[in-house]
Here is the input.
Amino acid sequence: MQHRYRGRMFIHMSIHVPNAGFEQAVLASMNRVRLAALGTPGLIEIGPWREEETGGRIVGIAMWESRAHWEAALPTLFAIAQADDPDDLWYASAPERILLENASALPPGEADE
Here is the structure.
């Protein structure tokens, strides 16, 4: 994930634990959302990541300029996944959602964006 955005960010993480044999289906769904999101106002970066050590979890990370941008995009983006995804079949447990707001201090002299 490479980006050049220097302002405050809002991050949406979703941690997925797919049932055996459904990893590729989960990744395909997450990539459908990623492709649909490209060009969405306020989106900095989005994509799925596979846990390397245990190999079981897939983490979706979406970086936004603000929580307001993320909230505005939610109805459209997640309708894509919910339309065709049989979550009860694919997942061992419901995906965990983590919402992160930037808590870093700005360097002296920089305005808060």
Notes: The longest strand covers residues 43-50. The mean pLDDT is 85. Strands lie at 10-16, 43-50, 58-64, 96-101. Residues 8-13+20-53+62-86 form one domain.
